[in-house]
Amino acid sequence: MSTYKIINPFSQEAIAEVTYTTLEDSLAAVDVLMNGKILQKKMAPFQRADILANLANLLRRDKEKIAVQITQEMGKPLTESLNEVDRAITTITLSSQEAIRINGEVLNSDAFAPRRDKRGLVEHFPLGIVFAITPFNFPINLSAHKIGPAFAAGNCILFKPGPQNYLSGKMLTALCYEAGMPKETFQMVNPDIPVMSELTRHPSINCISFTGGVKAAKAIAQNAGIKKLLFELGGNDPLIVMPDGDIDLAIKTAINQRFGTAGQRCTASKKLFIHESIYDAFKTKLIAETRKIVVGDPMKKETFVGPVVSTSAADEIMRRLEQAVKMGAQVLVGNKREGNIIHPTIVENLEIQCDLIKEETFGPVLPLMKFSTLDEVLEKLKTSAFGLQAGVFTNDLRTIKRLYDELEVGALAVNDGPGFRAEHFPFGGTKESGIGREGVAYAIREMSAVKTLIF
Predict the structure, then answer these.
(1) Residues 372 and 389 in one domain
(2) 308 and 169 share a domain?
(3) What is the CATH number of the domain that holds 124?
(4) Taking the model in full, what pTM does it have?
(5) Among 18, 133, 387, 410, fewest CB within 10 Å belongs to which?
(6) What is the DSSP letter of 103?
(7) Are residues 261 and 197 in the same domain?
(8) Could you tell me the residue range of the domain that residue 301 belongs to?
(9) What is the enclosing helix (H) or strand (E) of 116?
(10) From CA 115, how far away is CA 281, in angstroms rounded?
(11) Who contacts 438 (Cβ-Cβ below 8 Å, separation ≥6)?
(12) What is the pLDDT of residues 270-318, one digit of tens each?
């Protein structure tokens, strides 16, 4: 059996050695879930709601223990991990509430000629088995955004956490069982890539809900065959600051949304467009505030930026920085590495074709881009392969409307950054940022099939 080690990104010590789930055991888990579909059909919506409410209470009970596990596995500061568990509690609570609100509608055939005197009773039914594949950066809440809606909709769930998050995934699985989810409706697996390929093409899996990178999503899509695909992928999200924007709030937002989680968020403010009339003043204040950030041990309460998830991740960030500098970029602050910690870094004068701008950079690096007209910004953003979210600081309704109309994104946040997310809002992007929408009620719809009774 092949194994791998989970490494604490800060101490770089091994936490555990984990065995991959074999093909035989993975297929057996799918067989268990096939039997679970019968259990789900017999379970009433209020029963599913009660189980999810129990799960929310158990997450609340074990909040500190789960948060410590997240921090040890992926390196985010403990304060962030605690906040993540709070968000997961909200996500599961919303899923519990939405489980009893799933309803349909009745249509009259005679709304249009000819007269046929029929009614259409439209209801939502579960898809069957949902394969929930989650990433390392928000291991509990992003799992909750798949597990909660999938179970609320009456589906069975095959759960695969990120390899780095195996231990927190096991904790979440145990809480699902303790909450009352039958094992026939929920199974966790930890396959390697070849076994993953077998699972994604498995004909008994009806839906794949994947959060992760574009390359992996394309491999899944190519392999999956005809089944529902829900992809929440990367982002290269802009934050635009207009002359009438609140500079101090924009700086606070840029720091929180770019350097939080060491920049390892798909919605992080990865490109900061600042109008030329305020550029110098904005830059000066931003650098001063960035220098105040506490960097170091993620278990310490005062730490704001901890390590990135792995040595290879840190290597790639530094490679992109080095490339940008060779192409003429100027480092204003940062560009310092200690182990897997990359100090918050601000750069300017970047070429649009450098990897730091063109690709999604999962690290605490903030590129500044000066502009004079909105046309310049829109032209540059058209070239991006991504379209997740965007943010703008302005009170000009014409600017807001134009950006909302012309940006190819899933959401535009006004006087906030692209990192804004509420658990009940629809969440997802366009282009290579994904297919479908998360957000509890919206995810339930995505994980359901519409059936019509004509009578």
Answers:
(1) yes
(2) no
(3) 3.40.605.10
(4) 0.96
(5) 18
(6) -
(7) no
(8) 237-422
(9) none
(10) 69
(11) 145, 146, 149, 230, 232, 426, 427, 428
(12) 999 999 999 999 999 999 999 999 999 999 999 999 999 999 999 999 9
